[in-house]
Task: structure prediction
Amino acid sequence: MAQDFSKIELGPAIVEYGTGVDMVKFETTIGGVTFATETTYRDQLTDQTGETIVGKRITGRNCSITIPFAEYELSVIPKIMTGASVVTDGTDSKIELKTGVGLNLIDSAKQAVIKPLAKLNDPNYWVTLPKAYSETDLSYAYDNENERITNVTLRSTPDEDGVVAILGDSTITATP
Result:
């Protein structure tokens, strides 16, 4: 097989989480956006074959997008952290982080799309999680050596068709 260097992709991306006025665009990252799949398996064994695997089944597949968001933008926190809320007095506002105990993250699932900057307008290169919920943890360094990063992980949950991720144009449909 001949080498095709035009198929080598690299470079930064943006991530869009949600749609419409509630969309959060992660446009400034430090450390790069990461898309990952995690598949779990179960070995099938029989007494007659001992520890020899006679079958292997998929027991689940999860996908995630990790975003080291570099913009210190407090108004974004309630949009990406379940249990956080904005309190405003008309001129100033603050963000309250509550324990969130018992909240179901799946209830807040939204579409997430990774768009490489080099292919920003080409959906054939996008990665879409049709339903993703946010696991956000804050870890802000207050020193001269580090930027304050909001670490956001968007995890997939299956849509009504069992799809957890789409690589390429999500609008493509099968033709009869």
